[in-house]
Design brief:
The complex is a heterodimer. Chain A is α+β, with helices and mostly antiparallel strands. Chain A contains 4 helices and 12 strands, in the order H-H-H-H-E-E-E-E-E-E-E-E-E-E-E-E. In chain A, the strands form 2 sheets. A 6-stranded antiparallel barrel of chain A has the order 1-2-5-4-3-12. Classes of the chains: A alpha+beta, B mainly alpha.
Chain lengths: ~300, ~180
C-alpha cells in the first residue's frame, strides 16, 4: 500500500460543504441566466472537455467512415444524378435572374422604392452536427466548426429546405446552434400568400413553432408557408421557416393559437450550412437609436 | 416499555463482515474511471437510447463516495457537473448542484449502504439518482423550460440496473490479491 488513507483530516462536514457548493452553483446559475458575468468560463471548460468529446465521438466517426466507404461504390450513379440536378438548378437560376431583372424594371415603372439590397450571402460554410445534447431541456445542437473556422455569433444555420437556427455560442473548434424551436428564439417572418408580417417563436417542444399575438380574425390559413421577412437584418429574406399546421380560433381569447411545424429538418440532418452574412449598414441613423434588445 | 422484537436474522453480521476490505484506490484509478464515465456520458446517442442512458458520471461518483469517501468530494463533483453543463449546453451550474447533492446523500448514507449487498444497494442508489433528476428538472422548470415528460426519469431506472455491474467492475482492481507467498 503506497497511500495511507487520511483518517483524521476531514475538513468541514458534508452539510457545510453542500451549503457552500449549493450557494456557488446558485450564483453561477443566476450569473449565467441573467447577468452574463463570466462569459469566458464556458469556453474555458469547453476547451478542457474537447478531447473527451472527441474521444466520445470517435465511434460515430468510424461508423461514418465505413458508411462513406460503402457509399463510394455508388459514386458514378451519384455523380450522374448530381450533374442532372445541377443542370436543372442552373436553368432555374437563369430564369430567376431574368425575373429579377424584370422585377427591377417593373419596380422602376411603378416608381416604387428599389428593393433594399439585402445582405448578400458572402459565403457558406458547410458544417456537420456533432451531437444533440442528452437532456430534453435545451433546444441546441453542436456543430463541428468553431472560432478556428471563422464562425461568429449570430450567423444563420440552414439546410437544403429552410432555416434551422442561429449560432449563439462559439468555442474554439465547435459552436452551438440555438434551434428555431427554442423557446427564447424568434424569427421575423412573412406569410407568402398575403405577405402578412409577424414574428414566430419556438414553443420549447420538438418540431413546433408558435405564432403569438396574432388576433383571432387574422387572415391566416392552415398550410400557409412562412418565410423570413428579412426585417431586422439578421436573417436574409425569403428562406422558408415553417408551415402552419393548426389554428385554434377561440373567440373568447384575444389572440389565435397558431401552431406550425418547421420546414427544415431541425432535428434530422447531419450536414448543415452556416451562412456568413454581411449585415447591411443602416442608412437611417435615427432608426438605430439606443434601444437595446432587452433580455427578459 | 415494550421492547422491540428484534429479528435475529437481520442482526447477523456475517454478510457485512464477510465483505472484502477494499484496498485504497490509487489516484489514477479514480481519475481514469471518472474520465471514462465522462466519455460515456458524452457519447452522441439518439432516440430511445438517449432516454434510457443512465448518468454514468453520477453512478461512478456515487460508487467512490460510498466505498472510498476520501477520494471523490464535492469539489470534484462540482467540476464534473460544470463539464456536463457545458457539454449539454444548458444553464451553468445545473448539473453541478445536482451532483453536489447526490454526493452529500452518498456521504451521509454510506455507512448504511455498506451494510447491504450490491443488489440490495441498487434501489437505494436509484432513489438518490431520482433526487438528482428531480433537482435537474426543477432547475430547468424554474428557467422557463417545458416539462420533458415522465419518461425522463427512466434514466434513474436504468441506473439502478447498472449499479451492481458497474460497482463490480470498479471493485476488481481494489480487491486484495491472494498473496502467493502466504502459507
Amino acid at each position: 500500500m503506497e497511500t495511507t488513507p487520511q483518517f483524521f483530516r476531514h475538513g468541514p462536514g458534508p452539510l457545510a460543504r453542500l451549503m457552500f457548493f449549493a450557494l456557488l452553483s446558485c450564483t453561477l446559475m443566476a450569473a449565467d441566466l441573467r447577468f452574463k458575468y463570466f462569459p469566458e468560463l464556458r469556453p474555458a471548460i469547453a476547451v478542457i472537455i474537447y478531447p473527451l468529446q472527441k474521444l466520445a465521438h470517435f465511434p460515430a466517426h468510424i461508423y461514418d467512415r465505413v458508411e462513406e466507404f460503402f457509399a463510394s461504390f455508388h459514386l458514378i450513379q451519384e455523380n450522374n444524378f448530381l450533374r442532372q440536378r445541377y443542370l436543372t438548378d442552373r436553368e432555374q437560376l437563369v430564369r430567376l435572374q431574368a425575373l429579377k431583372a424584370e422585377n427591377k424594371q417593373l419596380r422602376k415603372l411603378l416608381g416604387a422604392v428599389e428593393q433594399i439590397e439585402t445582405n448578400t450571402v458572402a459565403k457558406a460554410v458547410m458544417a456537420e452536427i456533432l451531437y444533440t445534447p442528452r437532456d430534453p431541456f435545451s433546444h441546441k445542437t453542436t456543430l463541428n466548426k468553431g472560432r478556428h473556422h471563422n464562425i461568429k455569433k449570430g450567423q444563420i444555420v440552414v439546410d437544403d429546405k429552410g432555416i434551422i437556427g442561429q449560432i449563439t455560442q462559439v468555442y474554439q473548434w465547435v459552436s452551438e446552434v440555438t434551434l428555431i424551436t427554442d423557446k427564447d428564439h424568434s424569427v421575423p417572418i412573412q406569410i407568402v400568400r398575403n405577405s402578412l408580417r409577424s414574428v414566430i417563436s419556438g414553443a420549447g417542444k420538438n418540431n413546433e413553432l408558435e405564432l403569438r399575438y396574432l388576433s383571432v380574425n387574422t387572415d391566416i390559413q392552415e398550410n400557409d408557408l412562412l418565410v423570413t421577412s428579412g426585417i431586422g437584418g439578421v436573417y436574409p429574406s425569403g428562406i422558408p421557416v415553417a408551415k402552419v399546421t393548426k389554428i385554434d380560433r377561440n373567440p373568447a381569447d384575444t389572440f389565435a393559437r397558431i401552431i406550425s411545424t418547421p420546414i427544415a429538418g431541425v432535428d434530422r440532418n447531419r450536414q448543415v450550412l452556416i451562412l456568413s452574412l454581411v449585415p447591411p449598414l443602416p442608412n437611417n441613423p435615427a432608426e438605430t437609436s439606443d434601444i437595446e434588445p432587452q433580455n427578459h | 416499555m415494550n421492547p422491540k422484537i428484534i429479528d435475529e436474522e437481520k442482526l447477523r453480521s456475517n454478510n457485512y463482515l464477510g465483505q472484502d476490505i477494499l484496498a485504497p484506490a490509487k489516484n489514477w484509478h479514480v481519475f481514469l474511471s471518472l474520465t471514462i464515465a465522462l466519455i460515456l456520458n458524452f457519447l452522441p446517442l439518439q432516440g430511445n437510447f438517449l432516454i434510457l442512458r443512465p448518468d454514468f458520471v453520477a453512478i461512478t461518483m456515487l460508487f467512490w463516495c460510498v466505498n472510498q469517501p476520501q477520494r471523490v468530494g464535492m469539489s470534484i463533483a462540482f467540476c464534473l457537473g460544470l463539464m456536463m453543463d457545458v457539454n449539454n449546453a444548458n444553464i451553468l451550474g445545473q448539473h453541478a448542484l445536482a451532483y453536489c447533492v447526490i454526493v452529500y446523500f452518498a456521504l451521509i448514507l454510506r455507512r448504511r449502504l455498506r451494510m447491504f449487498s450490491l443488489l440490495q444497494q441498487a434501489p437505494q442508489i436509484g432513489f438518490i439518482l431520482l433526487i438528482m433528476q428531480i433537482i435537474i428538472v426543477l432547475i430547468a422548470l424554474l428557467s422557463d423550460s417545458n416539462f420533458p415528460g415522465w419518461h425522463f426519469f427512466l434514466a434513474s431506472v436504468t441506473g439502478v440496473f447498472l449499479w451492481a455491474p458497474l460497482s463490480f467492475i470498479l471493485c476488481i482492481p481494489l480487491r486484495p490479491k491472494p498473496d502467493p507467498d502466504a502459507l
